[in-house]
Amino acid sequence: MAIPTPQAGSADIGVMGMGVMGSNLARNLARNGYKVAITNRTSAKTQKVAAKYASEGTFIPSEDVADFILSLEKPRVAIIMVKAGPATDACIDQFKQYMEEGDIIVDCGNSLFSDTRRREAELKAAGLHFVGAGVSGGEEGALLGPAIMPGGSKWAYDRLGPMFEKISAHVEGEPCCTHVGADGAGHFVKMVHNGIEYADMQVIGEAYDLLRRALGLTPAQVGEVFARWNEGDLDSYLMEITAEVLKQVDAETGKPLVDLIQDAAGQKGTGMWTVQTALDLAVPVTGIGEATFARGLSSAPEQRQAAQNFEGQAEPWQVKDREAFIEDVRQALFASKVVAYSQGFNEIQAAAKEYGWQIENGDMARIWRGGCIIRARFLNDITRAFEKDPELPLLIGDEYFYGKIQECLPAWRRIVAQAALHGAPAPVFSSSLSYYDGVRAKRLPAALIQGQRDFFGSHTYKRVDKEGTFHTLWAQQGRPEEQW
Ligand SMILES: NC(=O)c1ccc[n+]([C@@H]2O[C@H](COP(=O)([O-])OP(=O)(O)OC[C@H]3O[C@@H](n4cnc5c(N)ncnc54)[C@H](OP(=O)(O)O)[C@@H]3O)[C@@H](O)[C@H]2O)c1
């Protein structure tokens, strides 16, 4: 049976897309007292949500987009929560037909920030506001309070912000939502958040792998170690759920579930986007990059098969002081994690410069403290670091984090060295340490690279002792240098 036409202007806000995320976001809005217009491409889902959750609040279902837009109070706020890509464009095209100047379209899907920038510019020309809003926290977050990262105009945020702040997660009374910056800034920050999530998961994975290889711990024993770590600096949602995953026993076989799961990690693309964008901006996000490549390696069966009989020529593990080793791994994990966050913030800073966004890094760390997957205790320390110096060029240069890294360095070096000696892959642990040593180096072999580039491609070089651009005539007798 078709849904009857709703009353015009009866809803505070609308959600199109009654999939996992959209239906939960609509319920969250309704539970917080908003009258929520809902619709979906397949209208059976709209009816199901309206009927099943009627007791939670006011849902105003619509059969089609025309009725959906009509049901919204002006200036209208219509959220799109569908599969990112062409589906989002299809929804926007439909919305445009029925919207009026000053109305706001909000894309809460995981859209690529450059798509958001394009859409925002196109809709601005049509007199509409477009807000790309990153939403983190999965299904549970959408329902109970996610971290929300809206971009778009300040005007749009003034209309939309109070509603989003109300439904977002709250930590110490503060909402995990703030206006991130213009056009695609919100989706950019969400993308980097997801990239950091990749690195965070990988460093936990590397710690787990080392503890099993070196000490022969069972998954449940590693889970106990992680539960202990979760009471200190490493207190985070990811650490907490990892401990749970490791303790899980398969009901059918009685074996640790993690040992029965195929070791091929999937990805949906936001980590890849973070790395691709970092390359465009020339920002080294080695932690996120190695974490993304590690997933790629795990999911390359042909290459892994071809290498199964490769000799490692690695020394067998012989750990004398097991507790000291566990503490070393903890410190290597912590230091690598801080580096990954530091690099992620550098990517946000570079994009803000490139696209003219006014992004407060401290606010980003603050809104990530609740609702989202990377929520963690140490985000408070990151907020404090950026509050102290909003222009901080390196998070690892902040007094607190610098001190922490100094504490961890000896253990970090020991773990990276031992992983190499004993043939254990630890790509983020080791690349983060290399980054640390690279960024603090007085002099890098980049001077030699410049010489090579000038030799084969006349790419020129700068000198440390005088101004100007120089080229050596490598093919000529005596190789004279000329100024360009
Ligand atoms: N799942 C998560 O943890 C999570 C977290 C953060 C962000 N996100 C993002 O949230 C968005 C929605 O994810 P989800 O997990 O809720 O997806 P989902 O459960 O698979 O639902 C997809 C929704 O998209 C609609 N759709 C697909 N193609 C469409 C089209 N061409 N035109 C109109 N509607 C179309 C579907 O409508 P039908 O019912 O008619 O097929 C359905 O409502 C995605 O961008 C995702 O990346 C997801």
Automatic annotation (TrEMBL):
Pathway: Carbohydrate degradation; pentose phosphate pathway; D-ribulose 5-phosphate from D-glucose 6-phosphate (oxidative stage): step 3/3
Gene3D superfamilies per the UniProt record, alphabetical: 6-Phosphogluconate Dehydrogenase, domain 3, N-(1-d-carboxylethyl)-l-norvaline Dehydrogenase, domain 2, NAD(P)-binding Rossmann-like Domain
Matches recorded under InterPro entries: 6-PGluconate_DH-like_C_sf (IPR008927), 6PGD_dom2 (IPR013328), 6PGDH_C (IPR006114), 6PGDH_Gnd/GntZ (IPR006113), 6PGDH_NADP-bd (IPR006115), 6PGdom_BS (IPR006184), NAD(P)-bd_dom_sf (IPR036291), Pgluconate_DH (IPR006183)
GO molecular function terms noted in the UniProt entry: NADP binding; phosphogluconate dehydrogenase (decarboxylating) activity
One Gene Ontology biological process: pentose-phosphate shunt
Chain positions recorded as substrate binding sites: N110, S136, G137, G138, H193, N194, Y198, K268, R295, R453, H459
Active site as annotated: K190 (proton donor), E197 (proton donor)
SUPFAM superfamilies per UniProt: 6-phosphogluconate dehydrogenase C-terminal domain-like (SSF48179), NAD(P)-binding Rossmann-fold domains (SSF51735)
Coiled coil: none
Enzyme class, spelled out: oxidoreductase
A Pfam family the protein falls into: 6PGD
Catalytic activity from the UniProt record: 6-phospho-D-gluconate + NADP(+) = D-ribulose 5-phosphate + CO2 + NADPH
PROSITE patterns: 6PGD
EC number per UniProt: 1.1.1.44
Entry keyword set: Gluconate utilization, NADP, Oxidoreductase, Pentose shunt
Domain 6-phosphogluconate dehydrogenase C-terminal: 186-475
Record-linked PANTHER family: 6-PHOSPHOGLUCONATE DEHYDROGENASE
UniProt similarity note: Belongs to the 6-phosphogluconate dehydrogenase family.
Quaternary structure note: Homodimer.
Protein role: Catalyzes the oxidative decarboxylation of 6-phosphogluconate to ribulose 5-phosphate and CO(2), with concomitant reduction of NADP to NADPH.
Annotated protein name in UniProt: 6-phosphogluconate dehydrogenase, decarboxylating
Organism: Winkia neuii
